[in-house]
Amino acid sequence: MKSIKLILATSTLVLSMASCSKSELYIYDCECNDKNDSCYLKVTDVNKEGYYLTRAATEKESFGDGDAIGLWIDDGVNSTYNGVSYENIQLEKETLGWKMQRNVVLTKSAAKVYALFPYNADQANTSVALSVDDDTDYLYDIASNVSNQSSAVSLTMKHVRSKLVVRVERDDYTGNGIISNGTIDGSALYVNGTFDLKTEKLTSSDNVKQITFSGTMPETGTLVEEWFVFSAFGTATSNLSFSLTIDGITYPTAKSSESVRFEKGKKYIYTLSVSNHKVEVSQVDIQPWGEGANENLNVTD
């Protein structure tokens, strides 16, 4: 008799799940698609464009358990969705997938999902502070038209900034090759500012448009330096100027032949060739950030 009741109870549960009453709140796995039903937002997958730095920067080739992303959800006009505030919700990678620390209830109204990596519990809003001294590879993505009819979201995280790569190599230079002062200037070169996650705009926080570095050119091979940079919204293209003081001698400034504007998710590679009398700049090589396995940079700090 007990077994019959158990079978009946199980059958009733299955039937109730299959019916998907409109008065209930359904999780992503429920297959009902009635536009009047509500359901939870589900992040099914998070991928990453690009590669990781070969030096000690916190760039990630892929996401692993414990990695976390911050999510903001609104209706694309207001800062809320259906009158509810969803700000900086932690989305954490676990062994079986991605887990949200708070459920987001979706209706037939369209929502926008803004994602920012890495997650920062102290991130008060969607304005991200950027600095030349910050080696964090900030990543973001925006998903539109999310609703109860399209509640499963797959994110492809993109680079907030550009990557500037400078390669310094000997031509016929015979000295020790100690660069005590290297400077890079350009009106389109920005290093400090902010990124607005919702508008995708980069703005400058100061007038610093210069990078300085030092190092030693090897007898054979190449000295390589890398930085995260950007061009502020509305910035015109510009050339880059390179000034080097090598073994105590300041060389004439070398200027690139092409004007550039640094675009998010691209790397800009300049090669400086040093002779005993001058420094020459190669044509800039602009590439999308590739996979880490394809990188072959001998980076020095």
Describe the structure.
The longest helix has 18 residues, at 2-19. This protein is 6% helix and 42% strand. It has one helix at residues 2-19; strands at residues 25-26, 38-40, 42-48, 68-74, 86-94, 97-100, 105-106, 111-117, 127-130, 139-146, 152-159, 162-170, 178-185, 193-196, 201-204, 210-216, 223-229, 241-246, 249-250, 254-255, 266-274, 279-281, 285-288. It is mainly β. A hairpin with a 4-residue loop joins strand 21 and strand 22 (279-281). The protein starts with a helix and ends in a 13-residue tail after the last strand. The chain is built from one helix and 23 strands. The model is unreliable at 1-32, 51-57 and 291-301 (pLDDT under 50). The protein has a seven-stranded mixed β-sheet with strand order 3-11-10-8-4-5-6, with no helix packed on it. Strands 12, 17, 21, 22 and 23 form a five-stranded mixed β-sheet that branches.
